[in-house]
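TL;DR need structure tokens for one chain.
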Amino acid sequence: MRLAVHLWVAAVATAMPLPGELAWAGETCPAGWWADVMVGSYHIHPYRHFDDFNPGIGVECSVTAQWAASVGYFRNSLDRPSFYAGAIFTPEVVHWGWFRLGAMGGIITGYNYGQLGLGPNNRTGPILAPTAITRFGRFAANFILIPPIHSDNLPFTVGLQAKYRFR
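>> reply
TL;DR here they are.
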């Protein structure tokens, strides 16, 4: 839990501009703030039962139309708490009106990463996942294809986040 708090602070600190950059940028998240609600997941060819309802909350800071920083919490498919912090990149060449493709990368807790893991019980590790984002005005959804985590026998998983732009 303590490691997760440190990760959140680090993610927010790296997304914040320095005092000299504030005058240039004009504001912290010039492309907007989003509230994220983790809804659930779908497991592709699971070997066992996983929870498909994964409630959680997060916040997303859009620095540009292509880059955003994201932090949050959800109850994962193994019924464990998960905290995440990272970045979302959606290159301009894969934006088609209300639909865009990209990738999310960062760090997440709550899964057994084996030798790749950090912290107690190796439950913190890296994540890099392809993402599809749909946007309709102030509402949006992230569809995230999470790669398998072999140490927990977790198969490919599609996660769903609903989003609301509040600035």
